[in-house]
Amino acid sequence: MKKYTQQIEKENQKGITLLALVITIIVLLILAGITISAITGDNGIIGNAGRAKEETEIANEKEIIEKATVQAMGNNKYGNIEEDELQEQLNKETGEGKTEATDIGNEFEIIFNESNRYYIVDKDGNVGEAQDIIKDKNPGDITVGKDGETLDGSEEHPYEIWCIEDLVSFSNMVNGSGIKLENGKPVEIAKSNNFKEKYVILKTSLNFKSKLSYQNSERTDFGDINGNEEDGNTLMNEMTTGTGFTPIGLSNGFWGIFNGENNKISNLYINYENDTVLNSYGIGRSAGLFSSGNTQYTIIKNLKISGEIKSAGHTGGIIGTSAKLIENCINYADITGFNMAGGMIGDYVNEIENCKNYGKINITGSVWSYGGAGGIVGCTGSETKSVKNCSNTGDILGNTTKRGGIVGVAQSSSNVIIDSCINMGKASSGICDLHCMGILRIINSGNLKECENSGIIREIQAGEYGRDLECNISNSYNLGETQNAGIIASIGYISKSVKLNMENVYNAGECVSAIIGAIPGKDKTSLNIKNVYYNKELSQKVGVVEEGIQAYSESEMKDNRNFINTLNNNIQNHTEWKRWKIGEEGYPVLE
Predict the structure, then answer these.
(1) Is 104 exposed, middle or buried (0-12, 13-18, 19+ CB in 10 A)?
(2) Cα-based angle 339, 340, 343 (whole degrees, multiple of 5)
(3) CA 495 – CA 48 distance, rounded (Å)
(4) Helix (H) or strand (E) holding 48
(5) CA 459 to the chain's CA centroid
(6) Which of 390, 395, 391, 396 is nearest to 378 (CA)?
(7) What distances in angstroms separate CA 115 from CA 46, 48, 55, 96, one per listed residue?
(8) Spatial contact of 189 and 176, defined as CB atoms under 8 Å apart
(9) Residue among 180, 409, 265, 432 nearest 290 (CA)
(10) SS (H, E, C) 398-443
(11) N or C: which end of the chain has fewer CB within 10 A?
(12) What 3-state DSSP class applies to 40?
């Protein structure tokens, strides 16, 4: 028995020893894991050391650029930066062949060859953040990702655009002409593809004047794109001269979803001003980054554009004609179009939201009575529902009076809403120039800039159609100087009938008539004007209507909390109306 007990005790001791050994090994492994992680992990010693080294390199590179830029500006008698002088100063700082400076329009691009990084420097010498040079292993093939993954255009696996070659191939595929690249080799495109309900994503910002936006800016396999067979056909030259980039959907509309992912396409150049392909009205093909789409399917969002776009047809910075939705887009490009032109789109769009235009819009002429130009849209269409949260800073120019800061012409048989929009550019009218069909509602909107004819709308009339019209202007204002009326220049010419509702509106812009200039169709016009105000010191007269309108002095309107309270008290029963606050100039603006 004793012997048996001793044997059990020995086995227990062995078990305890084995268990202790296992625990010890586990603890050592855990400690080793922690040690390895501390050395090699994302926040480990090696990782931190690598980041510190990279941060030091970037700081040194930025310092080199800043020194070279200051010296280049100092050596120029006008204080400008010139490409050759900038490169010379960079060579002095780094040695020849270490950097490469290129003028890419309104900016300079500086490459550090050894670190594979580049920086953008503006004309004032401000240096942007470091960016890695991205190489696309499959340029010109949007069905293959940057690293070789297969893409099918679904929402989960959208087609990807990483370089100019991808963008050109995409345009060719939609238009059904030219080539695309497969495995690095050109393939002739046999038919067009409208990409119906397919997803396409712009994965990085592109600049048509930057070599880094091309995988090979000197390639010639895309052939003649710009209409000049004799210029060598190098891709960058094709994109920046002659007719330039071919709009996506020039021959066949794009019916998909394009997401710019807040990237920017810079120095886009399109020149179809002398287009010889004209329709029966003498109007050329539509132009923009996209030429045409479809009001049921086409969605373009999260995109920025700069450059120059000219066309003999309907023209927009984002798309020329026909889209379901344009959202979160910014246009810096100067636009020249015929008949209909806009910062976002020329005509026919269902909805536009959260968009901004900074480019100049120039309309060269019009063959339709409702053709026009606007900072956001040239002309609305029969399916247009709303233009919301949009702003315009660019001037709207041209030889037609139909030039609105936000919308050129509200031409629609549906209920169009212009909501929470502001104009800061010169135009014929601040918000919309001509309202000629259906129902128009302008709410929560304002004009801050000088306009030739009116602060909000130039004219409400149905022209040759003789239709019934309804116009609602509410919770809106004008601070811009006009040569005619503060709010509406004219109502009712030829229209069958016009109903005007105006509430909680004020004008504090210098003008002839404070609110309404003329009503030639007075016998066909019904007015419902309530809580409308104007600065009597800036207006020569109240206008042709006085009922519902109150005259205030400048001191009663400017920097006056009582006036703010009056406006805000009027909105209590209108949940869609925004509240008022004192703006930078002292007059009320909307929150």
Answers:
(1) buried
(2) 145
(3) 73
(4) helix 45-75
(5) 28
(6) 396
(7) 19, 18, 12, 15
(8) yes
(9) 265
(10) ECCCCEECCEEEEEEEEEEEEECCEECCCEEECCEEEEEEEEEEEE
(11) N
(12) helix
591 residues of the chain, pLDDT tens digit each: 555 455 545 555 555 676 777 777 777 777 666 666 666 666 666 657 667 888 999 999 999 999 999 999 999 988 899 999 999 999 999 999 999 999 998 899 999 999 999 999 998 999 999 988 888 889 999 999 988 899 999 999 999 999 999 999 999 999 999 999 999 899 999 999 999 999 999 999 999 999 999 999 999 999 999 999 999 999 999 999 999 999 999 988 999 999 999 999 999 999 999 999 999 999 999 999 999 999 999 999 999 999 999 999 999 999 999 999 999 999 999 999 999 999 999 999 999 999 999 999 999 999 988 899 999 999 998 888 999 999 999 999 998 889 999 999 998 777 899 999 999 999 999 999 999 889 999 999 999 999 999 999 999 988 666 788 999 999 999 999 999 999 999 998 788 899 999 999 999 999 999 999 999 989 899 999 999 999 999 999 999 999 999 999 999 999 999 999 999 999 999 999 999 999 999 999 999
Q: How far is 16 from 37, CA to CA, in rounded Å?
A: 31
Q: What is the 3-state secondary structure (H, E, C) of 178-244?
A: CEEEECCEEEECCCCCCCCCCEEEECCCEECCCHHHCCCCCCCCCCCCCCCCCCCCCHHHHHHCCCE
- For residues 476 and 406, is the Cβ–Cβ distance under 8 A? no
**Alpha-carbon gap, residue 249 to 286, rounded angstroms:** 9
Q: What is the CA radius of gyration of the chain?
A: 31
Structure tokens given for 275: 């287009």
Query: Residue 131: CA atoms inside 13 Å, Cβ hemisphere, count?
Result: 18
* CA 224 centroid distance within chain: 29
Q: How far apart are CA 157 and CA 432, in angstroms?
A: 41
DSSP assignment of 308-371? EEEESS-EESSEEEEEEEEEEEEE-SEEEESSEEESSEEEEEEEEES-EE-S-EEE---SSTT-
- The one-letter amino acid code at 4 reads Y
* CA dist., res. 562 & res. 393, Å (int): 30
In 3-state terms, what secondary structure has residue 85?
A: helix
Give the whole-angstrom CA distance, residue 163 versus residue 152.
Answer: 18
- Please, is 55 exposed, middle or buried when counting C-beta atoms within 10 Å of its C-beta (0-12, 13-18, 19+)? exposed
State if pTM tops 0.85: yes
